[in-house]
C-alpha cells in the first residue's frame, strides 16, 4: 500500500514560502510513489480551543467546525509535513489554533486511556517533518515553534524526523533564492518514502 503524505500549509499566504516548501516536499513524495494531499489552513474555518473540558468524557471535541475534518486526515496520514512560518517568534496562529484543538487527544490518552491513533499497531510507523521560514536571522527565532511542534507530534504519535527552518526568508518567493532549500526539502521527503 502507498504511504499517505499529508501536508498542512499553515500560512495565510497561500503562495508564501512555507507553502512552496510544502508543495516541494509533496512533489518529491509523489515522484517516489506515495499518495499526497496538501491542505491550506487558510481554506478552512475553525475556532481556538475553548478549554471547556467538553472532550474529557469522550475524547472528542465538542466544537463542530473544520478542525474535525482536518484531524480525520491527520489521523489517517502515514507522513505529516507541517509547514508554518514564524510570527512574533512563535508558530503562526493558524497552526497554533489547530494544534490546541488536539487537546481532545490528550483527553483520550491520559484521561480515558484510549488509543489515539486508530489501529496504530497495524500501520506503518508515523513520521513527519516540520518546515518553517522566518524573515529575520535572529538567534532562536525557530525555538518556540519547534517546542510546540515537538509536543504536537508526540501527542499524535508522529516521529519528528527533521526540522527544516530557513532564516532570512521574508517576502513571498524569497525561498526560491535560498541556496539548497528546495533540494533539502525534497531529499528529506524522499527519505520519508521508505516505510
Ligand atoms: C504577523 C507576522 C509576524 C512575523 N514575525 C516574525 C518574527 O517574529 N520573526 C521573523 O523572523 N519573521 C517574522 N515574520 C516574517 C515571516 O516569518 C516571513 O515573512 C516568512 O517568510 C513568512 O512565511 P510564508 O511566506 O510562508 O507566509 C512575521 C510575519 C508576519 C506576517
Radius of gyration: 16 Å
How are strands sequenced across the largest beta sheet?
A: 2-1-3-6-7
Major sheet description: 5 strands, parallel
Mean pLDDT: 97
Please give the number of β-strands: 7
CATH fold-level assignment: Rossmann fold
Order of secondary-structure elements: EHEHEEEHHEHEH
Please tally the helical runs, counting DSSP H or I stretches of 4 or more residues: 6
Ligands: flavin mononucleotide
Q: Give the percentage of residues in beta strands.
A: 15-25%
Integer count of domains: 1
Approximately how much helix is present in the residues? 25-40%
Summarize the structure.
The chain has 195 residues and is an alpha/beta fold.
Please provide a written account of the structure.
The protein has 195 residues and is an alpha/beta fold. It has one domain: 3-Layer(aba) Sandwich (Rossmann fold). The protein has helices spanning 17-31, 66-76, 93-100, 103-111, 143-155, 181-191; strands spanning 4-9, 35-40, 79-83, 86-87, 90-91, 127-133, 159-166. Helix 1 links the parallel strand 1 (4-9) and strand 2 (35-40). The chain binds flavin mononucleotide.
Amino acid at each position: 500500500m502507498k504511504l499517505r503524505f499529508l501536508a498542512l500549509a499553515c500560512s495565510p499566504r497561500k503562495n508564501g514560502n512555507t507553502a512552496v516548501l510544502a508543495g516541494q516536499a509533496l512533489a518529491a513524495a509523489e515522484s517516489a510513489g506515495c499518495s499526497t494531499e496538501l491542505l491550506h489552513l487558510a481554506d478552512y474555518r475553525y475556532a481556538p480551543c475553548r478549554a471547556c473540558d467538553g472532550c474529557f468524557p469522550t475524547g472528542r471535541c465538542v466544537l463542530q467546525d473544520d478542525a474535525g475534518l482536518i484531524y480525520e486526515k491527520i489521523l489517517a496520514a502515514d507522513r505529516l509535513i507541517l509547514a508554518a512560518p514564524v510570527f512574533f517568534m512563535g508558530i503562526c496562529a493558524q497552526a497554533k489554533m489547530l494544534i490546541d484543538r488536539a487537546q481532545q487527544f490528550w483527553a483520550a490518552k491520559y484521561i480515558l486511556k484510549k488509543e489515539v491513533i486508530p489501529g496504530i499497531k497495524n500501520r506503518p510507523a508515523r513520521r513527519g517533518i516540520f518546515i518553517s521560514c522566518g524573515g529575520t536571522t535572529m538567534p532562536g527565532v525557530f525555538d518556540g515553534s519547534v517546542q510546540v511542534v515537538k509536543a504536537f507530534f508526540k501527542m499524535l504519535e508522529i516521529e519528528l524526523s527533521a526540522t527544516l527552518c530557513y532564516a532570512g526568508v521574508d517576502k513571498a518567493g524569497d525561498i526560491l533564492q535560498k541556496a539548497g532549500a528546495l533540494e533539502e526539502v525534497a531529499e528529506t521527503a524522499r527519505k520519508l518514502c521508505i516505510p
